[in-house]
Specification:
Strand order of the largest sheet: 1-11-8-7-5-6
Strand content: 15-25%
Number of strands: 11
Number of helices: 10
Order of helices and strands: EHEHEHEHHHEHEHEEEEHEH
């Protein structure tokens, strides 16, 4: 079994981004907005600040109170939309329950939507036009390419249908000529669908969901989820030790898709800066 090392590839991608960024007339700028005190979100935001430093980007962080109103958040987004030195805007999700995520996402200038969640960028992905790709699915595709895994003609099964991972993951695999099945909570006989997959992507958030008997011999298994088990240890949706006996390729958790998500964000921010400086 070959371990798909996202950490190593992310380091390589960020170094390439840094080399390109220092050639620009103005260094790329990223603004990250965090509302509330979600501990996992705080870890992500801290990691993104470090990534920006490694890539030579300018970055700003806005840590807003849990009680921030919708109007206040939208005012900040509008201010950042108008800033010439800010190329990318990332509003960390999830937001507190009293805030409407969809309204906030739609308020971000699509040209600065480095998360790739704005309806305009989602539509571009659907019809195959250039645009920002959601970072996690984009990172997965980078990982497959690094290891020479060509989806063309393969059966791909994506478990999960979120707008952030599942749906765009399916579209990117389809774009690369895979035959794609999307499974979800209402899918009958999930195990049988999974066993047909040459490429299996798990993105649900349920520890141990994908067991060895659900995996085809020699499959490529990508574990997108980041959970904590009963002992508080980080884990994904895949039973790693058991599935590693059957899969040809498998991502670890942590160290697999997570670093690739962050690397893809840096790629998106660089692309945004090039677009806004008319260098593409």
């Amino acid at each position: 079994m070959t371990r798909l090392d996202g950490k190593a590839l992310a380091t390589k991608i960020k170094e390439q981004v840094r080399k390109e960024a220092i050639q620009l007339p103005r260094r790329p700028g990223l603004a990250v907005v965090l509302v509330g005190n979600d501990s996992a979100s705080r870890v992500y935001v801290t990691s993104k600040r470090k990534d920006c430093e490694e890539c030579g980007f300018y970055s700003e962080e806005y840590a807003l109170l849990e009680t921030t109103t919708q109007e206040e958040l939208l005012e900040l987004v509008e201010t950042l939309n108008g800033r010439e030195d800010i190329d990318g805007i990332l509003v960390q999700l999830p937001l507190p329950k009293h805030l409407d995520e969809e309204t906030v996402i739609q308020a971000i200038d699509p040209a600065k939507d480095v998360d790739g969640f704005h309806p305009l960028n989602a539509g571009n992905l659907l019809i195959g036009r250039p645009g920002f790709l959601p970072c996690t699915p984009a990172g997965v595709m980078d990982l497959l390419d690094e290891y020479g895994i060509d989806p063309a003609g393969k059966r791909a099964v994506v478990v999960g249908r979120s707008n952030i991972v599942g749906k765009p993951m399916a579209l990117l695999l389809l774009r690369r000529s895979a035959t794609v099945t999307v499974c979800h909570s209402r899918t009958l006989d999930l195990a049988e669908h999974c066993r047909q997959a040459d490429i299996l992507v798990a993105a649900v958030g349920q520890p141990g969901l994908i067991t060895a008997d659900m995996v085809k011999d020699g499959a490529v298994v990508v574990d997108v989820a980041m959970n904590r088990n009963e002992d508080g240890k980080l884990c994904g949706d895949v039973d790693y030790s058991a599935v590693s006996e059957k899969a040809a390729y498998l991502t670890p958790v942590p160290g697999g898709v997570g670093p690739m998500t962050r690397a893809a964000l840096m790629e998106n921010t660089l692309w945004a800066a090039k677009q806004r400086q008319n260098l593409t």
